[in-house]
């Protein structure tokens, strides 16, 4: 992306634009591609005809994301194993902004994936970024009455599927430390004690690296699978560290300086209920980039 001045509206609103695209698409790579395309369109536009640059840029990002998401859904239907969003490192203080952090949590991005592309766009613009129904109607070129119906449907869908879990960062950090210690020590019983009776584990390897092709259920099955993966030769030299991932305390795995996995989870009554392992090498870019873009 070419140099632009700090006073340029694209630069001024870049964090908002990335945050919109990332929440729409669930991938860092696609979000950055959308920003690149938005910048190109912005530079080709007749600025004298753009009365509200911020609205123009948000509209462009949203519609480019819609187009990309619509085409991506067919690809994801043929994805090898469970599909999980690309993890993104966030700053510790981001987790303290609970409402904002929740909108980018791995759990929320998974729920958003069950919406249609238009529902996802309307939900995010309305519930996350606070746009009015009239503004969304203008952005998406739909009647306001239609937008209101879509917004109601999407909100109800998200509320029914959004998991309820503990967000206390201190407790999450404590459980994460115990999780890493049990994994590092190969302690099956300690690991099982951290898992809820109805725990489910999803792992996204994209058919590229070792991962379970189907969700795993139950403490014994999940714990044995985790320790089995860590005991494999290709896991030699792996180091686990506490990290803030998508606004939550989680675990980052590295071999040397290279991120090889991100573990996020839901914490319910002090136990891990849902584990999500992102191990697809092509989806770990957000673990090395700047973390200020979600703002």
TrEMBL record:
All copies of domain RNA polymerase sigma-70 region, residue ranges: 12-73
Gene Ontology biological-process annotations: DNA-templated transcription initiation
Subunit record text: Interacts transiently with the RNA polymerase catalytic core formed by RpoA, RpoB, RpoC and RpoZ (2 alpha, 1 beta, 1 beta' and 1 omega subunit) to form the RNA polymerase holoenzyme that can initiate transcription.
Keywords tagged on the record: DNA-binding, Sigma factor, Transcription, Transcription regulation
PANTHER family assigned: ECF RNA POLYMERASE SIGMA FACTOR SIGJ (PTHR30173:SF36), SIGMA 19 FACTOR (PTHR30173)
CDD domains: Sigma70_r4
SUPFAM superfamilies, per database record: NTF2-like, Sigma2 domain of RNA polymerase sigma factors, Sigma3 and sigma4 domains of RNA polymerase sigma factors
NCBIfam families, sorted: PRK09636.1, sigma70-ECF, SigX4
Entry annotated with the keyword Nucleus: no
Family: Belongs to the sigma-70 factor family. ECF subfamily.
GO molecular function, one term: DNA binding
Domain RNA polymerase sigma factor 70 region 4 type per the UniProt entry, residue ranges: 108-157
One Pfam family of this chain: Sigma70_r4_2
Record field: transmembrane: none
Record's protein name: RNA polymerase sigma-70 factor (ECF subfamily)
